Amino acid sequence: MNTHAGFGPASPSSTSTPPLLEIVIEVPRGSFLKRGSSGHIDFISPLPCPFNYGSVPDMIGLEGDLLDALVLGPRLPYEARITLPVWGAVTLMDRGMIDDKLICCAHEPSAADIETVLRFFSFYARCKWWLNLVRGRSGRNACEGWISATEAIARARPRTEAWAGPDVTY
Description:
The protein has 170 residues and is of the alpha+beta class. It has helices at 111-134, 149-155; strands spanning 20-27, 33-35, 41-44, 52-60, 66-71, 81-94, 97-104, 142-147, 157-158. It contains two helices and nine strands. The strands form two sheets. The protein has a five-stranded mixed β-barrel. Strands 2-3 form a two-stranded antiparallel ribbon.
């Protein structure tokens, strides 16, 4: 991991143009409802989501669900479809499974933006540990840090018509 001040990346971009992907918003910025890729409510948060949260509708992440994407910027409506550059990704370990979160926005995020995202996912991993404990689900939960957009996208696989939803319940 390329680090900045011991926490975030030194630079989110590389020498190439960032990939563009379509994102569907599942959780608008400021929402208390955490929805999964199926549209069902996973849980109600005591804190509002500080980012727009969604997924790439045609890619499956390593944990078997749609590839997650976080969109920086103003609040977007639920189910909005937006095509944006992907500047990098945060790798979250959830119940021992790698769950990459693409970081998208119209402009290259600042080091402060990235540090905020990494701090959020470090906190989120601890909260997810508690939620998984209550639900009786074991496995390690942690924020593993920043990776390049191309690395995260390469770890995903294309969604096929045979995909009927995630293999594990969330």
